[in-house]
Write a structure and sequence with these properties.
The complex is a heterodimer of chains A (67) and B (262). With 67 residues, chain A is mostly beta strands. Chain A has one helix and five strands; from the N terminus they run ββαβββ. The longest helix of chain A is centred in the first third of the chain and has 7 residues, at 19-25. Classes of the chains: A mainly beta (67), B alpha/beta (262). Chain A binds chain B through residues 6-9, 26-28, 31-36, 41-44, 59-67, and chain B through 25-29, 32, 35, 48-54, 56, 59, 63-65, 70, 75, 77-78, 80, 90, 93-95, 97-99, 165-166, 192, 212, 214-215.
């Protein structure tokens, strides 16, 4: 298992999972989110190619109501 | 009156053509259903939205895009809550990645109590964003010199505050707002501080190109009706501005002819 930080929360995922697989696990629509991986924004076309490893930090954001 | 004097009045900002000069925020509503209803009543073509962490654990939590279709209404991603240039840039780059948004609202705050914009960080961020190809509508103080500076940096719209965010105090410095309107070649949109519909009319009568309203609608007892009030207020103010008001006189001038009085 690999331990990563997802939106500030520590979670365990299976090793060598991609961002795409993680989104699928949490039932998140990749069209409606944007992702930062260790401080770098990942283009959507890389979700299937980007593997997650121990201690990675992931931020998954979306639009909410705001002024 | 000559024909064609009621010709269409389109609000152009960056590469967008808007029918309404009212832009509304989507924060502070009771729920998304109310947000969507208020937006509909307001007649706005453009809404501001915030970028936040998604709630991973609560999968049933409703999401904004299910209630307001970004294909039908223009989303204007905003950096509300950012206090540094780095945070604002990070937020808008993420927003662009989400759906290709290039037209954005920049807001870099400087003080938690007044939510007054930090203009040094704002100018710095505007320069970077313009360089990266963003079209930036910029929330700013009502200082004409700084507004000009933003325009020179490539801002797509200047958005001076009427008074502090969420205060509902209306336009506190009409002179400054007028100076900004007169000097600006890009649209001027009064953002923040509008309290009620008549405040929006005043802004439009002064010659603002648009107004951005959130709290005044969302915090009204009946937000849906208030949304409609703002729609009409903005239309009235704009028409009044375009019509050119009558001159003020110190003494009365009768409305009926004085000839032929019996």
């Amino acid at each position: 298992m690999a331990k990563i930080q997802l939106n500030g929360k520590k979670i365990s995922i299976k090793p060598k999972a991609t961002i795409y697989e993680l989104l699928k696990k949490f039932k998140l629509n990749n069209k409606k989110v944007a992702i930062e991986h260790n401080g770098i924004i990942i283009p959507k076309s890389y979700y299937k190619k980007k593997y997650l490893k121990n201690n990675d930090k992931l931020e998954v954001v979306h639009f909410i109501g705001g002024g | 009156m000559e024909e064609g004097s009621l010709k269409k009045d389109i609000f152009k900002v960056a590469n967008k053509k808007l029918k309404s000069r009212l832009i509304v925020g989507t924060g502070k509503y009771k729920n998304f259903r109310e947000t969507a209803q208020a937006v509909k009543e307001s007649g706005a073509d453009m809404v501001t939205v915030a970028v936040r962490r998604i709630n991973i654990l609560d999968k049933k939590k409703p999401i904004l895009t299910d209630y307001l279709n970004p294909k039908k209404i223009i989303y204007l991603p905003n950096t509300a809550g950012c206090f540094t240039s780095d945070d604002a840039l990070r937020t808008l780059r993420l927003a662009r990645e989400m759906g290709g948004w290039k037209l954005v609202k920049l807001e870099v705050l400087g003080d938690k109590k007044t939510l007054y914009p930090n203009m040094i960080e704002t100018i710095k961020s505007t320069k970077v964003l313009v360089k990266e190809g963003f079209k930036v509508m910029v929330y700013c103080t009502d200082d004409p010199l700084l507004a000009k500076k933003l325009e020179d940096c490539g801002a797509s719209a200047i958005m001076p505050l009427a008074s502090p965010i969420g205060s509902g105090l209306g336009i506190q410095n009409k002179v400054n707002i007028s100076l900004i309107i007169k000097q600006s070649k890009v649209p001027v949109v009064v953002d923040a501080g509008i309290g009620t519909a008549s405040d929006a009319t005043i802004a439009m009568e002064m010659g603002c190109d648009g107004v951005l309203i959130n709290s005044a609608i969302a915090n009204a007892k009946n937000p849906i009706r208030m949304a409609r009030a703002f729609k009409n207020a903005v239309i009235s103010g704009r028409d009044s501005y375009l019509s050119g008001r009558m001159k003020k006189n110190f003494f009365a001038i009768p409305s009926s002819p004085t000839d032929g009085i019996i």
